[in-house]
Amino acid sequence: MPSSPLLQISSVSKTFGGVVALDTTSLELAEGSFTSLVGPSGCGKSTLFNIISGLLPPDGGSVSLEGRDVTGTSGHVGYMLQKDLLVPWRTVMGNITLAASLTRRVTAEDRAQAQAQAERYGLGDFLHHYPRTLSGGMRQRVALMRTLATNQSLLLLDEPFGALDAQTRLDMQQWLLEIWADLGKTVVFVTHDVDEALFLSDRVLVMSPRPGRVVADLTVDVARPRTLATLTDPSFIELKRRVLGLLHRENA
Amino acid sequence: MTSSPQPPVSVVRENARRADAFAPAWPFAKLALWYVASVSLTLLVWQSCIWIFHPAPYIVPTPRATYDVVVSQWSQIWPLALGTFRETIYGYAAGAALGFLLAVAMYKIRVFRSLSYPLIIGSQAIPIIALAPILVLVIGFNIYPTIIVVTWIVFFPVTINTLDGFLNLDPDLLNLTRVLGATRGRRFWFVELPGVVTPLFSGLKIGAAYAVTGAIIGEQAASSGPSLYQFQVAANNQSRTDLVYGITIVMMIIGLLWFAVVTGLDRIFTPWKYRATARRWFRRDKTRNASLTTND
Which CATH fold would you assign to the domain A1-77+155-252? Predict the structure, then answer.
């Protein structure tokens, strides 16, 4: 067991007008881990996600990050959605440094870091382009760069590749794994896509609705680095069978 | 070198090509050409009507006669037109500022929004013709009633468009700024304000088109000295129809000029709508390396 978890969620729950969006949930995430939440709509994954980010105060329980109580407060995670939310009036560089400019004056180091990362991860030619000129995949790369530029150790990614075509998505997944391996971030990844969850993660939490809760906590024992061959690996297929079983039992 | 899956060269090329398409070399020249075409067409229709229907010259003068009389009377028209232009831009500036500040206050203060909305709509339900004499009663015969009339007309589209812009900002984007720990002031300056530049300019353009009308109504009701409007009335009384037409066209040109100025400002303030890459002097990083990696 690692010494102390990076993120500790203790008995949080959330009810909206009598509907239990998230039943009492406790969770610990190890530093540097990659965890996916999978489940159908209404299973509470977005609720859990918003509680961690601080957008939503939980009805009860607490969230602590690196030993600090952060329940109901914001500004402590990197955050990315399916919508890239790039602002059209800023260039790629400006979008990457947006988080910094929202909290303090942007420094030369911020820009140098943004430029170095953009160049390292394939955006060097587009530093001064406005987002409108970029393809969907490129825009998501910029959005991820912006998320990384917050320099937070915990990244929350909510279906970041959900709107991309299958081929681009696979490229992006490999690209994300490479960044994750380089930077040692802790990632919480929300997705509908079982393949995506298993391909990326150390750990997959399967959630189910009414009430929203975690019904299974699976460790993905598949060797890294993962490649296209991983997708047809027998142990991968076996895990996929189990997750699909869990998801569809709920629908029956 | 990067080990990540690079975008294929073809993608980079494609984006570079798109970049060129977004930034035509002479946007203003192209625009000017369309203006010329549009004016020529109008003159042609006007002249054709005369050729076809043969109206009496005291009802519809020819474009040529109208042009000649404007040129011959230019020394009289010019200072009056300048006066009208001055009233227009003073009133416009006040209206634009008032309109914008009202929109910000209505966006930020809910109670103020609910209280002021009916008043703002009501302000536009008052016929300006009826309002102008009241302003003269209160303020007297000077330039201020005219400026207030222009302000009255201009603020409205600015407020309504800008407020709509604020209220239609993407809630996910605003949530993102919260997650990132944005301060209120910085969120306003870096996200909310640039997010409404487009609707703000829509309002400013509508206001620009109406501003001259306001100035002329003001001159009619409140003018203390000679004005473009009074000159036109005098010309009409003397049955100098060509001069009446000419002054009307001068009024229109004042409006067009001002609209063109606002449109130019729009282009300057929203480069992302017309360009693929940021202008060099807008770029925040001054590193040499950065300028090598761009393609404009």
Answer: Rossmann fold (3.40.50)
